[in-house]
TrEMBL record:
Lineage: superkingdom: Bacteria
Protein name per UniProt: DUF475 domain-containing protein
Keywords: Membrane, Transmembrane, Transmembrane helix
InterPro entries attached to this UniProt entry: DUF475
Classification via PANTHER family: MEMBRANE BOUND PREDICTED REDOX MODULATOR (PTHR30238), SLL1022 PROTEIN (PTHR30238:SF4)
Keyword Protein biosynthesis applies: no
Spans traversing the lipid bilayer: 33-52, 73-98, 123-144, 164-185, 250-272, 293-311, 317-334
Keyword Nucleotidyltransferase (UniProt): no
Organism: Paracoccus marinaquae
């Protein structure tokens, strides 16, 4: 365990020390320093709880990638995830929403955090629609697979597999869900919600098509190497979608961009460590229903993001809900393993 989480522990120590130093620089008091230290800790725990299903899905994709591309994702991909989604993404939202330059957005985050947080809050509706639709497509694509032969919730998953041969059924379900939610918003918000959801759907489809083209091209060049640039791109967009909820929710605890980056960056390192452990130890193979729990959690998260268009749902509920589904699937897997061991060969 220490081997897998060594770098996560190192980054935790450095991040919390940096957070304490930032708190002292901001307030000049021990109380202020401890407050920032505590907020960084809570944000790290928040990110871990919200992203555990992300680690399982990453591991599911990584196990089919070549060692070279696994290494690239777990190094460069994580760097992109930490700095891109935890720092650049919030700045980009403000740049687009406020129509200002990147440097001005950085200055705004440092000098007027209240205004920065307000702009981020106002951008929550399109983010929730985009991210929710993308994640819903990820979850539905796992269950509507005619080749899927392991079922956890038998009565439901067998039916989903049965109808998987109907072309575009996942897209239809996602669009119907988006239409239902958009009807309960006022006309202006409904238009924004629907347009952003369509972009989320198109992004998923484009990533799937582009991933297939890139990987098929690479197969011809590298004699069938699996999971190349296309899979890398898919995982990056997927990580971005998972991060929407955490980045927006972090502003409920603090409006300081740099504190958010420290806290969520620490959490992202634990997601990386969990992903490596799941791949190398073959945990997904040992616990046959663990993936199912993660993908149910993804669908639940997508619905929560849609619901947040109407009212705020505390991040602790989101995190605990996903953890509960994964925990139940793990327990079911352990029970299945025990029964299989006791049954006569």
């Amino acid at each position: 365990m220490l081997h897998y989480f060594k770098w996560a522990f190192i980054v935790t120590a450095l991040g919390l020390a940096l957070g304490a130093a930032l708190g002292w620089q901001m307030t000049g008091t021990v109380g202020g320093m401890l407050t920032i230290f505590f907020i960084c800790t809570v944000l790290a725990v928040l990110e871990i709880s919200l992203s555990f299903d992300n680690a399982i899905v990453n591991a599911n994709k990584l196990k089919d990638m070549t060692p070279e591309w696994q290494h690239r994702f777990l190094t460069w991909g994580i760097i992109i995830a930490v700095f891109g989604m935890r720092i650049v993404f919030p700045l980009l939202i403000v740049v687009i929403a406020a129509k200002i330059g990147p440097w001005q957005a950085m200055v705004l985050a440092a000098s007027r955090p209240e205004e920065y947080a307000r702009i981020m809050h106002d951008a929550h509706l399109p983010i929730a629609a985009f991210g929710g639709t993308f994640l819903m497509m990820v979850g539905l694509s796992f269950f509507f697979d005619h080749e899927k032969d392991v079922h956890w919730v038998q009565w439901l998953e067998r039916r989903m597999q049965k109808y998987a041969t109907i072309r575009g059924i996942e897209v239809a379900i996602a669009l119907i869900t988006v239409l239902i939610f958009s009807r309960f918003l006022d006309p202006t918000e409904s238009e924004v919600f629907f347009r952003s959801a369509i972009w989320g759907l198109l992004t998923f489809l484009l990533v799937e098509v582009l991933g297939g083209l890139l990987d098929s091209s690479q197969e011809m060049l590298q004699a069938g190497a699996k999971g190349g640039l296309g899979a890398f791109l898919y995982l990056e967009v997927l990580d971005a979608s998972f991060s929407f909820d955490g980045v927006i929710g972090a502003f409920a605890l603090t409006q300081n961009l740099f504190v958010i980056a420290i806290g969520l960056g620490i959490g992202a390192m634990y997601v990386r460590s969990m992903t490596i452990m799941l791949v190398e130890k073959g945990t997904l193979t040992q616990y046959r229903f663990l993936e199912h729990g993660a993908f149910y959690a993804i669908i639940a998260l997508s619905l929560i993001m849609f619901l947040q268009s109407f009212f705020r749902i505390p991040e602790v509920i989101t995190g605990l809900g996903g953890a509960a589904l994964i925990g139940i699937s793990l327990w079911s897997s352990i029970r299945w393993n025990r029964v299989a061991e006791q049954s006569p060969q």
